[in-house]
Design a protein that fits this description.
Blueprint: H1 2-15, E1 19-26, E2 31-35, H2 41-61, E3 69-74, E4 77-84, E5 88-94, H3 100-133
Length: about 130
């Protein structure tokens, strides 16, 4: 699974000019896969989970529904986080001259593909476990 996730991260980086890197992390802050350079990925995955908790509460408290994405704009670029199924998130780092519309478009597509990859990977295991129990 990690190979497929890395391939998706690299393809996304190829499709979005000025994208510096990204990672897939669990909502609990564990690193699943990354293509980051110059940023410590485990720490970024943990910080993403912390900010995700706040973003989820903010969306819920204001009646906006389930978390979908967040965007932080800093002086030197962007940090964007997208829901990738119910258990993982896609976090991307982009330079300040990134086309934010293109970033959102491509990242949303990648987040759906990542969610599908994770579901496909987990589904056969769950099916075999239920056969073993029954």
């Amino acid at each position: 699974m990690e190979t497929e996730l890395l391939a998706e991260l690299r393809a996304l980086k190829h499709r979005v000019p000025h994208l510096a890197g990204g990672l897939v992390g669990s909502v609990d802050g564990l690193l699943v896969a990354h293509d980051t350079h110059g940023t410590e990925p485990s720490g970024l995955a943990a910080m993403t989970a912390a900010s995700l908790g706040l973003a989820q509460r903010l969306a819920d408290t204001t009646g906006q529904g389930d978390f979908r994405e967040s965007l932080v704009r800093g002086e030197h670029g962007y940090v964007a986080t997208y829901a990738a199924g119910g258990s993982c998130v896609l976090t991307l780092l982009a330079h300040p001259d990134v086309n934010v519309g293109r970033l959102h478009l491509e990242a949303r597509r990648s987040a759906r593909r990542i969610a599908d990859l994770l579901t496909d990977t987990l589904a056969p295991k769950e099916a075999s476990e239920s056969r073993e129990v029954g």
